[in-house]
Amino acid sequence: MIDVSPDPTDRCEPSVALSVVIPMFNEEEALPALVGRLRPVLDGTQETYEVVAVDDGSTDGTAVRLAGLRADWPQLRIVRLRRNSGHQAALTAGLHHARGSHAVSLDADLQDPPEKIPEMLALARTRQLDIVYGVRVNRSSDTGFKRRTAGLYYWLMRRLVGPHVCAQAGDFRLLSRHALDALKALPDQPQVYRLLMPWFGFPSGEVTYRREPRVAGRTKYPLRKMILLAIDSVIGFSVAPLRLAVWLGTLAFLVCLGMLAYTLAVYAAGDTTRGWTSLIIAVLFIGSVQLVCLGVLGEYIGRLYTAAQRRPTYYVAEDTAAASTPTAGVPWPGPRRDPGHRPDLLGG
Fold first, then answer.
1. Element (H or E) spanning 239, and its range?
2. What is the Cα–Cα distance from 26 to 233, expressed in whole angstroms?
3. What distance lies between CA 83 and its chain's CA centroid?
4. What string of DSSP letters covers 137-193?
5. pTM of the predicted model as reported, rounded to 2 decimal places
6. Structural domain boundaries of the chain?
7. pLDDT tens by residue, 22-62
8. CATH fold label, 8-238+311-322
9. Phi–psi pair at 43, nearest 5 degrees
10. Neighbour-count burial of 140, counting CB atoms closer than 10 A to its CB (0-12 exposed, 13-18 middle, 19+ buried)
């Protein structure tokens, strides 16, 4: 049993009211539009805030442009990772370093509107909620294929993981300091936050919005990464594949019994030359089931092996909020790599 209550010795008083965490990977083109919409919203809240921009090893001009923006925007804080560690790892870095009493995670592509942040903060305070999800009620800006696959993903997750998974809720959410401390207390940090956060059971609410087109640049989640995300979600939060392997093995056993009865019947009839096709089919079927079961077991064993290595999820090269301290650039000691972590899957 894991105790996810925050460690009293690890608590610190929030220095700002609101932190906005934005993982970034090659988002140079989107930065002007992001700042143009985000800064007026945050300035209008009359709250003390910080914007934690996590540069996830960008290879374009994102780092240079962030440095230029910070010169005119003192609330902008840059956390630069040493290499591309993946979107969820960058999000983890931002949330672990956030100093606000509340933190909102937001993507840089503006598909999730920053104008909803004040509404999320007001809802959390009014109803004393630890989590407020941004739920997409209109995805007309996405392609038909993307809408259908996303609907299938959430349908599957709600049936495998549980109905507590919020349908159509991505990584646009608000977390209280209590929820942030619970995240930091986890020994092995799962990487799929849209499934992890409902697992905690914190009081939560929803804010609905229309999903907008990407403001600039190209998506960082092509079909291949979406498929791998679905695989990681299923294996990381459910034992259903192992149970499926059991049922496949049971089915293969029943088929073998049927083939045995058929073989005995053919032998008793004195016709032993027939049955070659059915025999080959049975051999191929059983071999396929065995390979599927071995593949499922291999996925789980591989994640256990990765977890046993206990490599940090990310390394921080620079944090502008701590540039004058001797700990700047020291990797966060707490979170560890998730058994299903794949940098190529969760990259930006």
1. none
2. 25
3. 18
4. EE-TTS-HHHHHHHHHHHHHHHHHT-TTSPTTEEEEEEEEHHHHHHHHH-SS--S-H
5. 0.70
6. 8-238+311-322, 240-309
7. 999 999 998 999 999 999 999 999 999 999 999 998 998 89
8. Spore Coat Polysaccharide Biosynthesis Protein SpsA; Chain A (3.90.550)
9. -65, -35
10. exposed
